[in-house]
Amino acid sequence: MKFFFILKQTFSNLWRERTPVVATILTICIALTILVALFEISFVLYDQLRDLKSKMVIEVYLDPDATNDQVKSIQNKLETFNTIERLRFVSKETAAGIFKEEFGENIMDILNENPLPVSFEIRLLKEFNHQEYLSLFKTQVENLNGVDEVHYRHALIEKLENVTEAVAIGGIFVLIILVFAMNLLIRNTIKLSVYAKRRQIDIMKILGAGNLLIRMPFIFEGAIEGFIGGMFSAICLIFAHKFVAGTFHLLEIGTSTYKMLWVITISFGIGIGLITSSVSVGSFVNKIFSKK
Amino acid sequence: MIQFRQVTVNYGYVPGALKDINLQMHDGDFTLILGPTGSGKSTLLRLIYMDILPSAGVVTVDKWSSFRITPRQINLLRRKIGVVFQDFKLIENMSIFDNVALPLVIEGYRRKYIKKLVHVLLDEVNLLQSMDQRASTLSLGEKQRVAIARAMAKNPFVVIADEPTGNLDREASKNVLSLLERINRNGTSVIMATHDYELIKKTPYKRIYMENGEVLPGERTITIPNKKINLLTNQE
Questions:
Q1: Which residues of B touch A203 (CB under 8 A)?
Q2: A203–B102: do the CB atoms touch at under 8 Å?
Q3: Is A1 in Cβ contact with B109 (below 8 Å)?
Q4: CA-angle at A212, arms to B156 and B53, nearest 5°
Q5: pLDDT tens across A128-159, in order?
Q6: B83·A203 Cβ contact <8 A
Q7: Nearest by Cα to B134 from B123, B121, B143, B124
Q8: Which of A206, A265, B84, B181 has the fewest CB atoms found within 10 Å of its own CB?
Q9: Contact, B82 vs B160, CB < 8 A?
Q10: In angstroms, what separates the C-alpha of B209 from chain A's closest C-alpha?
């Protein structure tokens, strides 16, 4: 009977304060949608970055007049690096073949000679594919006798790393603001509900109601607002996913992704609703009745 | 038994809402607390259901003492006391049934038992036919009868009535008094604060007269329009 009473009171609170309740649900929906979208963007960027890094090749170009002994010596020295996953020698002929593959023309036909230098293609072990080690590796290899230039897609990786970092930092910043906004609005609706029901709470206290029975309807109210907000957010995100997938062919979406979206948004919504309302209802009830 | 020992109550910076009260109310008594507005009647009653605690002295209600009672025990105490107010303190947007059922819901009784008991209680106060009506639609007299039914729901050992007839006409007041008398005849103590001397003048109950936060000893007279009444003997 107590449970039915609590449920009845919860829905009566929601109905009585319907305008602020709708505003709160909308805020939770928008906030959760932005949060999950930001999280997904960060995840995709991070994934792309990891993929790019794992495929990244460092090209070590040798002096055009490097002797065979020098080439051998450089190869031996490179082989001593235990951070290298794969080392491949690219002769002048192989380089000309790659040129033809990429540009469709034979370099000998254009220039009557092959100016492409001898080089090594290096792929580092995954854990060393970061900017700090790459710079160090580049300096070490460039100092080897007979090495002309060490090249890797430094700018692209740096850019991608910066973007990922910016999204992560921005995400945290946005997260703080949105959680604060959600918290503020849930607190506000709970405050209005408590204030509207202050007479009822007073009567219940006189009749000997415990704190739990008085507070539960308000706590449930917050949880229901979070639940509905989370549900709408999941719907928005699924539509956004379908749009992005259909337009840009960027994401592969399966039923499991949708299920995950429902679970994440709804549980986060309920969580924040429960926590905020539990914390605020106690303080509002105490505040109102301490003034008596 | 309810006992007040050297009880003083000060509200904030206003001292002397009650001054050095010593009283005893026995089980099964019908006690009237009389006195003009502001004399301390309501404060005395609020001490019984521990809505306030004394600034000095001790109030003992049944097995609970104000000296060492915890908030949890206050809830338990209130479940053993029925309270009736001048402004009824009903939840206006709830049905009569739900209002009477509220103390039983708080106690955690089963739905079936609550339904049965509320029907009996509403029948006692002649409101069974209107049990689905909202409290806001009732007349003042009917509201007070609902409040009395609610107070009785917990089978209390004492019913406290704070000016229960204050907002009612003569006929409704008499009804309320006779309901309280019936409750008392069944063994429940009743403590009623009132300044409706006309209503209680012919009743044989114990009287406590209060003025300026003090219980006045001995024989007292009060003046009501055109009549002088001895409070202890009820003689005009």
A1: 89-91, 102
A2: yes
A3: yes
A4: 55
A5: 877 788 888 888 888 888 888 888 876 777 77
A6: no
A7: B143
A8: B181
A9: yes
A10: 26
- The length of chain A is 292
HSE of B62 in the Cβ direction (CA atoms, 13 Å)? 17
Going residue by residue through chain B, which has 236 residues, state the pLDDT in tens, using 9 for 90 and above: 899 999 999 887 667 788 888 888 888 889 999 988 888 899 999 999 999 899 999 999 988 999 889 988 999 999 999 999 888 899 888 899 999 999 999 888 888 899 999 999 999 888 888 889 999 999 988 998 999 999 998 889 999 999 888 878 888 888 889 889 988 988 899 999 988 888 888 888 888 888 888 888 754 544 444 444 444 454 54
Nearest to A206 among B72, B83, B104 (CB): B83
Report how far apart, in Å, the C-alpha atoms of B225 and of each of A232, B38, B173, B182 are. 69, 20, 19, 30
Q: Which residues is B25 bridged to in the sheet?
A: B2
Nearest Cα neighbor of B33 from B168, B215, B156 is B215
Q: Please, what sign has the CA dihedral across residues B39, B43, B47, B52?
A: negative
Q: Find the CB nearest A204 among B49, B72, B106.
A: B106
Nearest CA in chain B to A289: B51
Residues whose CB is less than 8 angstroms from the CB of residue B230 and which lie 6 or more positions away in sequence, other chains included: B219, B220, B221, B236
Alpha helices by DSSP H, chain B: 41-48, 71-78, 96-107, 111-124, 140-153, 170-185, 197-200
The tokens of A205 are what? 């206290």
Please indicate whether, in this complex, the C-beta atoms of A1 and B114 are within 8 angstroms of each other.
yes
The Cα A244–Cα A129 span in angstroms is 30
In this structure, what DSSP letter does residue A250 have? -
Minimal Cα distance from B92: which residue of A? Answer: A200
Q: Do A202 and B75 touch (CB under 8 A)?
A: no
pTM over 0.80: no
CB atoms B90 and A203 under 8 Å: yes
Whether the Cβ atoms of residue B89 and residue A203 lie closer than 8 Å to each other: yes
Residue with tokens 């924040």, as numbered in its chain: A272
Of the candidates A12, A206, A210, the beta carbon closest to that of B51 is on A206
